[in-house]
Amino acid sequence: MIIVPGIHVKIFAEINASSRTKNRLIERGKSGFTVKQVSESVSALGNRPAILVMSISDMDAGREPWIGWLPRDEIDVTWWEV
Questions:
Q1: What are the structural domain ranges in the chain?
Q2: By three-state DSSP, how is residue 62 classified?
């Protein structure tokens, strides 16, 4: 799948994912995420490839959306199916 800013995606944790990644997906991923940016090297994640996502469920609940980086090697990204 080609990941580009603006698309609505569902994200699953890979078996080797860190507890941080798994927790973010459980806490914030109920309604999926909007991709904000794709990077080949994010210094905060040890220069790993990652995507910056924004939580849709927070916006749906009237809260400020969570925005954060998720490492590409810890996640599986698919299109959001309605």
A1: 8-79
A2: coil
Beta strands in 1-82 (DSSP E): 8-13, 33-42, 48-55, 67-71, 75-79
Please report where in the chains the tokens 């990204």 appear, as a residue: 77
Question: pTM of the entire structure?
Answer: 0.91
Give the single-character DSSP code of 31: T
- 11-15, 62-66, 71-75: least confidently modelled range: 62-66
Other CB atoms within 10 A of residue 76 CB: 12
The two three-digit tokens of residue 67, written as one number? 């925005």
What is the rounded CA–CA span in Å between residue 30 and residue 14?
A: 17
